[in-house]
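User: Second chain of the day. Same drill as before.
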Amino acid sequence: YNKWACTHNFDSKLPKVLKAKPVQAEDAVARFEQGMLDEHLKEIPKKEQVVPFSNMILRDAAIEWVIVTDQPNQALGHPSFKKMIDIAACATKGVLLPHSNGTRDEIMNKFRTQLMNIKERLNVS
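Assistant: Same format as last time:
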């Protein structure tokens, strides 16, 4: 270990090694302080877990969505909501939904496209 520590410029904190070193004022204080592991630790990326499907889990999630987003109860029966659920049901590895900025940008793009289509239909310059 000591040989490896020397060749890799590793500062050994073993008691024998610390006693053999000449004691300087800074080292005396540092000897009694606990070292930090921060530089050696790495954050493990979180894997997105796919929840296995069941009608009960879907029902609970839908009711929670109605409550949290303050939707009317009829929102769950709306055809566009059902279409979204049917599309998501085909996903095998979960779904990624855009964040608020991405959603806003998509809405604006769809609005502009609709305006262009209306202009073309009405032949307005």
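The mean pLDDT is 80.

User: Great, on to the next one.
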